[in-house]
Write a structure and sequence with these properties.
Length: 151
């Protein structure tokens, strides 16, 4: 798959329909950074009139995961990826449009090169920060991704 915004959002519809229905979309991606966005709506709200934490989790995981997927695709090798740990911190009610920004793309290439060279699995710790329309942080998610060569 070519890593364009259109193709990634189509991937969401087909492979992650709950994220797509909740309004999660890829906004931008390059080698160093990815942005996933979601707007607070009825379908993704909690009883407190803000965005449900799980919707924030889907968007933040997407922001980190598509960077890993992109680098794996560019390596030309068959490499599996799996979230092994996750942590979320919530600092403000999530209302309006929230952009989840991951700027940890630089960490992935080295880990993939190392797993290809050694055959050993690697872990990468990545962060996605949720920023609202007032430029305030509403949540920060950290993901530990495990990668390893497939047999």
């Amino acid at each position: 798959m070519k890593f364009t915004i259109k193709n990634l959002n189509k991937f969401l519809l087909i492979k992650l329909p709950s994220a797509y229905i909740s309004g999660v979309r890829v906004k931008s991606i390059n080698d160093k950074e990815a942005v996933a966005t979601v707007k607070h709506r009825w379908i993704n709200q909690n009883p407190f009139r803000s965005m449900y934490w799980a919707t924030q989790g889907m968007a933040s995981e997407l922001a980190t995961g598509i960077l890993v997927m992109k680098e794996i695709a560019e390596s030309g090798k068959k490499i599996s990826m799996l979230v092994t740990q996750q942590k979320g911190i919530f600092t403000k009610k999530a209302t309006g449009r929230i952009n989840f920004i991951c700027s940890d793309g630089h960490l992935i290439k080295e880990a993939i090169q190392k797993t290809i060279a050694t055959g050993e699995g690697q872990t990468i710790s990545m962060k996605a920060e949720g920023i609202d329309e007032q430029d305030d942080t509403v949540s920060v998610f950290e993901y530990e991704w495990s990668i390893k060569l497939k047999n």
